[in-house]
């Protein structure tokens, strides 16, 4: 033990040396072999193994961790080896008993009966001895080590106990031993909890163990269920498997499983998959409910019916439904039974009647299952990496695509006709064609069904005006026009052209209706259709472009949503025109002039809304949406035509940069949307989400202008950064990303930071005119939070690297604060202080001299409240400077560490392991001060764990321990003087 305390013991088990690679396995094998070799004699002579066990138990209770680790390993293996001997003895005893019974039936008491009696007694005696040896190690070693401070020791104990109970239930399968598995379900180490759960899983797998485990289950089942939501994912997954075992044996009621089903929408996919398997086995396949006879009928229909019962709980939220489908899909073959699903949707089975809610859920299930079958993710992945498939997976995907196409060919038109008018179902049904193998239509001679399907999709496009339905129709028709072959492709392209022409005709008619003073609905819905179509392909709308300008000019009271889609379609037309010119080998003057005319006209319309902004506020939903559209379209147009894109090219005249007045109006409109209140009621969750999304969208649009060098950063960058901490985590992340981009482009961001601090401070001064103290306090705190976040960028090594920048912010900030005293002095406390406190002590002293010099001829007593921020700023820096100097002085007082190899100490007195009071200062302690007086009396002030100070005075290598006293509120020098004075 003395060697261990001196650090001179080598840990063979944890050693990385090659020769000790198999140390653990060899050690375990040694004890196992020893027991086996001694099982016919020395094992039971109560000499060798008694001494071995006593030694191992004693070693397992020593302080050195490496000893406890190895001793535990040996002791646990001994029990495991003893079990194999005990099982052999049990078999031998049973065999002898049977032979003895057979001999007694002969009613002849001969020497063989006596021999068998003696053998039976000896075997029974040996078994009792071996059981007692196991109990000895259990009580002497396991009972102490299962709660060892080392989690590896605890884990090995629980793993071994699980093996013992499983392999030798006659001794260990009782509550006396089972309780340790239950207790360690609450262990702070995830590895120990997982070991306990896995051990219990193995126990519940054996049917014969279940009756004996009933009391244990009653006591610990709640904890087992709680572990399904464990902080460690691997523990949670194992616990879900354990709950499945409990359900299989019907040991827990269904009512206790409510919290588990909430995990179907949990973040870690491993947990969701495990719960999905549980849901499938228990609720859908009902593998654990053997008492009830299964319903008669098609198994797929039965399983799908039960799945629909589950999906009813999530009908109001399609996203949650998709999560549930994703979790169960891997285990539920019925989800890939396309014929069965189609049959249920078409009501071909009179015994099954689907409600409208069930039909909607079944279409969602069909669409999600189709996407899963062809290898798509239906739930976003956390890593967002591209998926790669093996050859076998690719073949399986193609087979699924083929099976789907064959099942859908004849039935697809029937489904589309039946649900044509249902906006909740049509988008999912239409988009299925994107995942089909269109070549099979020709191979299977189903061309007419393809044509019919395409016509129905076109009809659906003009029947609906919602985004999802329109986007699905456009995606489906475009896919058919590019992926089909031969005559079918020509047919699809013709239908796409017909769709465009018909849409333009409808738009002209709707435009004329609005000009004539009729309803705007037809114009709005057709503008939405045009927008979705333009997102995927260019469409010539030159004539409509002029009509749109006419409507915007002549009807300023149009619905905001109509205006939004007019502007969006105009922007997309400009973007496609620019794309065409950039990708053309030759550019005509006419096309260039046309593009410039369209762009300038669009900018004029957008700038109109900057001069006469739409009403933005909590009660104006459409106004907020229009304002957001104006900001994002403006930012996109400016980015598309930024001068750097076209400088030194033939298209240089396309370059554009807005002037400062336009930028200011743009930011004013952006800022109005940022100021929309976050305080919404619970029933307005959807409204809150829309407002938050609008804020993020507007901030991204503004930040994009700076990040892409579309405009000079002098005005807009400080404005954006000044909102760093005002609008939640989403805006903060956007601003943080912008700062990262700015620092990569230009390390000197001090001017932008200082200007941002000034803008935030000016907002505070504006709000300070209010009589509401809470508003004043909140705005001032926002200034401090902004300064803290910006100053936090300069941490660690960056603090020294960027010292000139920090110093510049501090000096110019002080200059700004003293421009208008005492009005601006609070800027020192709100903003400058956070940067100044990050400077080294010499710089802080210079700053203190500077501000002191500025106040030499000023009478601060005339306005004490106005000068209070200055006093706080000065005192804070003074305290910071004194603290830094104190740390430096402390470093000078401490003894310099010796370099190189330490000398060996001679005549080291052996130390007593368990005497906690007799110790020297050589131990690792937290030394607060080291003070030395004139008499070479060194005083160590030591802070101990129980927050009481202990004084130790060392002189001439003699140790005297003072009594424990409470903490003294005085510095080290005063304490030294008082101690020396008596």
TrEMBL record:
GO terms for molecular function: chromatin binding. It comes from the Eukaryota. One of its GO terms (biological process) is sister chromatid cohesion. Pfam families: HEAT_SCC3-SA, SCD, STAG. PROSITE patterns: SCD. Residues 142-227 form the SCD domain. GO terms for cellular component: chromatin; cohesin complex; nucleus. PANTHER family: LD34181P-RELATED, STROMAL ANTIGEN. This is SCD domain-containing protein. It comes from Gossypium aridum (American cotton).
